[in-house]
Design goal:
The structure is a single chain. Helix 1 crosses helix 6, helix 1 runs antiparallel to helix 11 and helix 9 packs across helix 10. The chain has 307 residues and is α/β, with parallel strands linked by helices. The chain contains 11 helices and 8 strands. Helix 2 links the parallel strand 1 and strand 2. The protein folds into 2 domains: 82 residues, no CATH class; 219 residues, Spore Coat Polysaccharide Biosynthesis Protein SpsA, Chain A (Alpha-Beta Complex). An 8-stranded mixed β-sheet has the order 3-2-1-4-7-6-8-5, with helices on both faces.
Length: 307
Amino acid sequence: MIFSIRHVVLAVAAIPFVYYLIAVFSSWQFFRRTACRNAPNHNFTPPVSNLKPVRGLDPDAYENFASFCRQDYPDYELLFCVGEKDDPVVPILQKLARDFPERRIRLLFGAGGGGSNDKVIKLARLVGEAQHEVVVISDSDVRVQPDYLRTVVAPLADAKVGAVTCFYVPIAEKILAENLQTIGMFSDFYAGILVARQLDGVKFALGPTIATTRTRLAGFGGYEAIENRPADDLLVGRLIAEQGYEVELLPYTILTVADYQSLRDLLHKRLRWFVVMRHMRPWGHLGLIFTSGLPWAHGGAPTMYAI
């Protein structure tokens, strides 16, 4: 009996190794397939409404916003939605409009919705106020290169593609918490994304960037339909995929500026993510027990030597 239990524990301890092999294979498949694909049509440049729900003042906020004003793109507008006129980000946005008079920048106050998710009710208003069919949604802590809009909009030239998303990396690691977050993103989060893509396709989107159309959003009722639910980025990708459209994950990265300043802040951020995943993807959340190799390596080694 003891012999059997030991072998069961050892077998379970080997599951993370199998998962790591799947993750390596999934990563190889992703970059191999994207390298073999035809180059995206960067000449596909429909007018774009760039939507940004904002609350509070992020680190390096001006540079983040200014990067969207330096796009190599013929026709786009920038829409910001802030809850209150006394929000500390308002002077930064006003300065942005003064510094880039050639850009169409609009600042909206108040979301007007009654939902519990502040970001989502702001997005609902932004989509309603957008002048163009193609919308690109991004977080306030994002910083981009001049080719950003051309890159994320290009896949929408294919009628089968309903949404586009991409990876994101930190702009710099200055403190221990930022280094730990980066390690976790590269070794855990992105590995899980590529495994999910390989096994089930891309049925999600990543919050820092989502490019889609107002028609695709309206297909599931728009942001008004999810204003009381968390994980709006994951939901938008899922609900667009359920309409029969592809969600394109690009081999392209944007930059983000860390919005946490300590290990405690990082722990709170990670715990919030775990709670959201427990509700949104319960089986995937349970599977974390079997894909984290370090605890099993510590627990399985004595058992292996005892056999």
